[in-house]
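2024-03-11 09:14:02 DEBUG pipeline.ingest accepted 1 chain
2024-03-11 09:14:02 DEBUG pipeline.ingest length=307
2024-03-11 09:14:03 DEBUG pipeline.predict start
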Amino acid sequence: MLTTSVIVPTVGRKRLLTACLNSVLNQTVSPNEVIVVDNTKNKEMKSVASIMQNKTTIPIRYYHEAIPSASLARNVGIKHAKYSILAFIDDDCFASKKWLAELLSPFQKNSSCVVVKGCNRNALPNNIYSSAEYYNDELFFQTHLLIKNGVMFSQWIDSKNFAIKASLLKKTKVRFSKRYRSFDDLAFSMDLKKKDVLFQFSNKAEVFHHGCTTFLKLFFRNICIGIDRKKIEARVGKKKDSIQLSRIEKDFFLTYRVAKDTENVKQSILRKVLSHKGVTFSFAFTIVSYISEITIKLSYRLTRDSL
């Protein structure tokens, strides 16, 4: 029987953390423990963990990481986790009722499965900026799905919704890097790929993400994405035996085929985002998405290659 540690990094969002923990503690399959890693300076989230512990028999273990970095917070969770499967969710997400059961299902069906990526949804469908973030993220992840013998695989993990065997992390010693603000999960994926690890995809393991709610938050996030993209490419290019980003998957998925073509993915996501929305929302969404794309490209081009 699989045992599970759920790891939740948090950065001072009490209301969202409470909702996240409530969803994790009310799963159809309960975790064996929940690890909350507080990334605030003054341990502001300790009270939330204590209040939630009083409402459940599931152990909630609290740790503090003073250095502001979601990557370091996740690594603290990895260090202290006790059980065989580590499941990750962010504090600005809440899980569907069967999230953990669906994440664990591929491990139970196939002993060779070591990583499972879940499926993300937009928790704020009426917010233009959250919708634009969701569209860009899902366009990236859904156009990087592959399929073989009816089983879906993702080319990348998403740090706010995935599960991994603790034994794999112990063996490979792969950890999240604090060098990246937005692409720590892509760098983590690349390090695992060097060990020939495949990431199975479960479209039923759903979490709902509260994305950026203002233009400034989205703008800053897109700048970070552009900078991290340059860092990733600089890192890959410095290796003598490196594989360019566009070729990484060909070595591991040579006999696999792309699950969905890009144009169909675009139309499918757009239908979800714009369903039952008016003309005003659709127009504003289009403008914000275009600005987001331009911001990422400019940030990428203006970032020094030496980063």
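2024-03-11 09:14:41 DEBUG pipeline.report The longest strand covers residues 199-209.
2024-03-11 09:14:41 DEBUG pipeline.predict end
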